[in-house]
Amino acid sequence: MKKRHFSQKYLRIETLPTLFCPGCFNGVVINALSKALEEEGVASLRGYVFVSGIGCSSWIPSPYILADSLHVLHGRAVAVAMGVKLANPKLEVIVIGGDGDLASIGISHLIHAARRNLDIVVIMVNNLVYGMTRGQQSPTTPRGLETTTTPYGSFEYPIDMCRVLRETNANYVARWTIAHFFQLKDSIREALFRLRRGFRYIEVVAPCTTYVARRLGLKPSSILRDLLKNSKRVEEIRRGDTIGEDSIVVGIFKSEDKPGYIELYQDYSMRARGVQSG
Most Cβ neighbours (<10 Å): which of 102, 118, 194, 211? Predict the structure, then answer.
């Protein structure tokens, strides 16, 4: 009898193989998440809720992950996740989305959830373009990259969400590329099972194989080599160092264990009830 892959207990088998483009790195994200769950001995995803918006990576939880999920309006995944967590704080709420969904139309929700230190995990799969709608420039598109809306190369400076979120009250902020599989898997384990409270953000740089790799004339394997070559660990960067535009800063930008929003909100509610009853 053929042995089942460990990840199949976390996936909806009837939906496989996926509808992602050939070579799409979303499958690596699914595998890293599944491996993290497996190593922690998670038998099933009861008690987990996945929330996603619109975009290629938003398909990861819905329909492929075998758990309760909400597939919501474009840019509103974090806002809906906050409602789910407040309604039932015992649930482990995970948002998975892309740079278009989270760093563009949904950026205000993302930043304010981090400011509140909301007790959710957010995994942003940064494919550098709007992949689902044919590869337009996104807020994270590197300067010089040709897209369907910048055929002569992007001239805008991209946003660095890790640097932005590091300056908020978020407990955990990390970035890895799709070539850093084991580091990504370990970050997911840390965010889900070590910290367990507050806002935890993990960015995964995963260039779109259709609208980035193809335009550059590269195969997915070449993309992986380039990601490793151009990555620089955050702890190796000294004050005053100049970071080239081709460099990708990876690592853990921030790791704290402050009380999360749910704990603070519950404490506030108890104090309010005490004042009213007194």
Answer: 102
